[in-house]
Amino acid sequence: MTVPALIIGGGPAGSAAAITLAMAGMRPKLIERHKLPAGCVCGGFLGWDALRALEALGIDPWALGARPISRFRLVTAEQVVEAELPALAAGLSRKVLDRALLDAARAAGADVTLGRGARAIDPLAHSVRLDDGDTIAADAIFLATGKHEMRGLARRFAHSSAGLRASLPSSQRLDGLAEVVELHLFDDGYAGLLMQEDGSANLCLSVSRDRLNEAGSIAALLPDLMRQAPALAARMEGTVPPRFDAVAGVPYGWRARDSGEGIFRIGDQAAVIASLAGDGIAIALTSGVSAARAMLAGGPSAASGWQRGMDRQSRRPVGIAEMLRHGAASPLPRRAMMAALRLMPRLGTRAARLTRIVRD
Questions:
Q1: Rounded CA gap, 104 and 288, in Å?
Q2: What is the reported pLDDT for 355?
Q3: For residues 198-216, b (16+ Cβ closer than 10 Å) or e, as one string?
Q4: Please, what is the Cα angle at 29 between 26 and 32, to 5 degrees?
């Protein structure tokens, strides 16, 4: 079977590409390994650029229950700094967002199949082998598998961090989180908290793989992190969430510099920005839409030029986010950063603007 466009992955990037292609009259095929939208490491933060992209796709996050976010708060064991975001953002769980995007893709005319995963890609033959042994050939393949690698097109990059995500129930100490994204900074990592549509809080953790490996397990690591982040420990009330979504290796700083004919890397397969910047979903939506438009305008041969353009577009925000991530993870730079932000909170607002994939 040969299809004009095969999209691997049903997250924001894959769905955005599917919606764009289908609305132009193409019938793309999208496959997603989960039968239902599942929780993932992404923290559910929708920046103002992500909100604009969703609106252009016909998605209203506020109608889905998104919580407004107007400020960010940085918390260490010694200090707390708060500043305004450049524009209104939102918090929304990925389960709700992904379901809405997949529904929109179906409504636009895309062929959406859930519960069917891809095992490997042959980039030269433009074919994908599925978990059940079937093979699908396509004129163009949109790789939207997020932070997970795909055999045949795996990224060659140092996976220096582990990503973890859990939900904190509304019964825990979530006071003061209204309209705020809260970032707790500690050695070799950070944690983010924001309110979701159901009244729970999304907890997203990033920690170096070396530190996680040294601890031996998530359960063994958390008490040590809580000692370095007492305010986060107070939020969690000394309890460990019963379940974490986890990615063992997160290639922060990755950018796809080029691609072969008919292969569009989108979302985290195009660029992986540090989660403390909060622009991952905007990158997913922006890359999915623009890759689909490139395909519509120039066919499969447009992939290489589009990928290089996406690399240029993401270079600044990803690079700045990497500097902030490394600075926040080390004691001396972290103290200096907090001191500077206490004196000039607008520096934080400016940094938030500079880490956007779409410039104002």
A1: 14
A2: 96
A3: eebbbbbbbbebebbeebe
A4: 145
Maximum Cα–Cα distance across the chain: 62
pLDDT digits (tens, 9 = 90+) for 288-332: 999 999 999 999 999 999 999 999 999 999 999 999 999 999 999
The amino acid at 276: L
Cα 303 → chain centroid: 22
Q: Over the stretch 108-117, which tens digit does the pLDDT of each residue have? A: 999 999 999 8
Architecture of domain 2-158+251-354: 3-Layer(bba) Sandwich (3.50)
**Radius of gyration for the alpha carbons in the chain, expressed in angstroms and rounded:** 20
pTM passes above 0.90: yes
Rounded Cα gap, residues 44 and 47, in angstroms: 10
Domain boundaries, the chain: 2-158+251-354
Contacts of 41 (CB under 8 A, 6+ apart): 147, 163, 164, 165, 204, 245, 246, 247, 250, 275
Report the C-alpha gap between 302 and 21 in whole angstroms. Answer: 15
Q: Name residues whose C-beta falls within 8 Å of residue 18's C-beta, 6 or more positions apart in sequence.
A: 7, 28, 30, 105, 108, 110, 112, 292
Q: What are the pLDDT digits (tens) for 150-202?
A: 999 988 877 678 888 888 888 778 889 999 999 999 999 999 999 999 998 99
Q: 25 near 260, Cβ under 8 Å?
A: no
Residues 6+ apart with CB under 8 A from 44: 91, 92, 93, 94, 97, 194, 196, 202, 204
